[in-house]
Amino acid sequence: MATSHNPPSLRTAMILAAGYGTRMADLTRELPKPLLPLNGMPIIEVVIRKLARQGIERAVVNLHYLPEKMREFLGDGSRFGLEVIYSEEPALLGSGGGIANAEKYFNGETILAANADVLCDLAIGEFYDFHCRSGALATMAVQPSSNHRDYSLALFDAANSLKNFLGKNEEIPRDVHAGIFTGYQILTPGARAYLKPENQSIITELYRKALGGGERIAVFPFTGRWIDVGEREFYLALLQKIRAGEVDLADFIGPGEFR
After folding, report:
1. Between the CA atoms of 100, 60, 40 and 28, what dihedral angle is there, to the nearest 10 degrees?
2. Residue 137's domain spans which residues?
3. In a domain, 222, yes or no
4. What CATH number corresponds to the domain at position 157?
5. Domain count, the chain
6. To the nearest 10°, the Cα dihedral for 144, 54, 99, 107?
7. 255 within some domain
8. What contacts 256, CB < 8 A, 6 or more positions away?
9. pLDDT at 150
10. What percent of the chain lies above the pLDDT cut of 90?
11. Measured between alpha carbons, how far is residue 54 from residues 2, 48, 109, 137 in Å?
12. What separation, in Å, do the N-terminal and C-terminal C-alpha atoms of the chain show?
């Protein structure tokens, strides 16, 4: 009788949280962007509680701007239901370099990476299952969209394979699908091998180079709720929606009582 081999569970996440938050202007003068409050709950707390409720056991958080405030708030992570580990960046390393700099904490595992300034109701287990079935080097969660005015877009084919990236205001080719990269991605050790602990973009150093080398990058079409909180106008608009009862943060954390 054949024996089935289930892939190891996804246990570790990397939360990219080191930036200055310059697009927030005066709002981040005394607080790092991930600690800006949403009806009393910092943005990064929403992200971390979501990860914990969906089975993530360890969250590696990179730090640069006002790191002591991040440490003071997050602590060891136990009150959120997981372990928080810190990866210090004396100089900013970007989305690619920040992940490479934290490699020693990943124990050779496939990891989830997420941005600290994005809220979404992505089902991580479903996302990971999709990745495992794809056999891809890495998998990006992409929200189908034609909004190339505000965002650079990921282009993918009918087989959900990444084909290219489109700059802002560039026309979308007719023979591909397009969408906004949500910031959620699953990275195998092989994918992370493209990255170095220096200031670099994950789009350029991993995704573009992997595509150029013939590797398959899978795209998970995510059609749920996704909110970019990375700019001042987006953040203030979200605050208004929360106060008006149009957005409930619990929807982005998941079921269960707060610990």
Report:
1. -30
2. 12-247
3. yes
4. 3.90.550.10
5. 1
6. -140
7. no
8. 53
9. 86
10. 88
11. 30, 10, 17, 23
12. 44
